[in-house]
Amino acid sequence: MRVLFVTLAASPHFHVQVPLAWALRTAGHEVRVASQPDLMDTINAAGLPATPVGPRLAQDESVEELRRRQEKAAERLAEPPDAQELMRMAEDRPELLTPDFLDGLFTVMTSAIFQNFSAEETVDDLVGLARRWRPDLVVWDTLMMGGAIAARASGAAHARLLYGLDLVGTMRERHLASLAGRAPELREDPLAEWLGWTAARYGGGFTEDLVTGQWTLDPAPASLRPPTALPWVPVRHVPYNGRSVVPEWLREAPSRRRVCLTLGLSFREVMGGDQASIPDLLTALGELDAEVVATLDAGQLAEVGQVPENVRVVDFVPLDALLPSCSAIVHQGGFGTVQNALAHGVPQVVVPNDLWDIYPRAELIERSGAGVRLSGTGPLRPAELRELVARVLDDPSYARNAARLRDEMRAAPSPAELVPRLQELTELHRSRD
């Protein structure tokens, strides 16, 4: 069969798709990857055929565009709060999940995020590609709903491959429940409205699978997954960190406990910068009785004075190669970093922020006993971080619980083992002969 992968032009989002794409390809299926032009070199470096769709995403410009869209969308509300408040997809406090909040959330998210990433030109190109190439299955990034529209327009089956917690599915269920309790004339649904008129351009209409897929592929361990009633198919996370060379120093076992410090690629490429103070992070870790490997680029180091003696700074090293030698990892809670740590059973210390799903994921890690997170908000407190890292290093229960989650992850079907199931689901869901 032919399988089209659709990904946001951000390498961490694409990296999650690579092992499954290669599993399908090695099983004899044809695979293509579609994304904005920014990602073509990254896709080619993974050995997969790439097709550009739509305009460049241009992340530096996109962050500013995102802020502008947030503010414009918030203006549509009767009493607009701060626009950033209306992007809290991870909000789970019942007293705040009011109909007004849910309406505002999907008003801002539809305009600022979903429409931005699946722009009209991007969807046109995706539909054109799908109608020409005729994929049997489209696997799409949860933020690229244009992939679902392209599948519908070409008669292909389609599935979401999650990057992070399923906040879209969870919040969508809440919003639908809220809408069902209102009079018909009060059921405004900006996400369904946008997807409906977009699908209508290609002869279709709105159905809920355009939001959440005909089924959802989730590489996270089941114990770290929020509950939803959506059709769900587990797949084992296989780390892929891009093209790299393992450095010589990493070929030898460390002489003492090793701690990885990484702020992840998402914050460099998508989120508009780091959220924690790098000098404070290095100050906290500089007094540890451990070797610290910090993956920081020149821009991140610009604000740093003297690097502590126990810290080795590298611009990039593949986490899949580094983490097996580590006793702990300190990071900001991004999905790719967490998945790499889980895959290798490494205890985690999370320095969280309120972007997307960071807080709830940090809470799940702490609740599992496989790591800890910094408490509260505000500036990072080096003494607190140092104490947490020392605790994770010295208390063997964190390593045991991290190993338990690693084993849970390994129990899920590998991408290769999943291929026959995808063939069955594709045959069941595609709408053409």
Task: Give a quick precis of the structure.
The protein is built from 18 helices and 13 strands. By secondary structure, the chain is α/β, with parallel strands linked by helices.
Helix and strand arrangement:
Blueprint: E1 2-6, H1 11-26, E2 30-35, H2 40-45, E3 50-52, H3 59-74, H4 99-117, H5 120-133, E4 137-141, H6 146-154, E5 157-161, H7 167-180, H8 190-200, H9 209-212, E6 215-218, E7 232-234, E8 258-262, H10 265-269, H11 278-286, E9 291-295, H12 298-301, E10 311-314, H13 319-322, E11 328-331, H14 335-343, E12 348-350, H15 358-368, E13 371-373, H16 382-394, H17 396-411, H18 415-429
Parallel strand pairs: 1-2, 1-4, 2-3, 4-5, 5-6, 6-7, 8-9, 8-11, 9-10, 11-12, 12-13
Helix pairs in contact: 3-4, 4-7, 5-6, 11-16
Describe this structure in words.
45% of the residues lie in helices and 13% in strands. It has helices spanning 11-26, 40-45, 59-74, 99-117, 120-133, 146-154, 167-180, 190-200, 209-212, 265-269, 278-286, 298-301, 319-322, 335-343, 358-368, 382-394, 396-411, 415-429, and strands at residues 2-6, 30-35, 50-52, 137-141, 157-161, 215-218, 232-234, 258-262, 291-295, 311-314, 328-331, 348-350, 371-373. α3 (59-74) packs antiparallel against α4, α4 packs across α7 (167-180) and α5 runs parallel beside α6. The longest helix is centred in the first third of the chain and has 19 residues, at 99-117. It starts with a strand and ends with a helix. The model is unreliable at 267-274 (pLDDT under 50). It is built from 18 helices and 13 strands. It has 2 domains: 2-236 and 413-429, Rossmann fold (3-Layer(aba) Sandwich); 248-411, Rossmann fold (3-Layer(aba) Sandwich), CATH 3.40.50.2000. α14 (335-343) links the parallel β11 (328-331) and β12 (348-350). The chain has a 7-stranded parallel beta sheet, sandwiched between helices. It is α/β, with parallel strands linked by helices and 433 residues long.
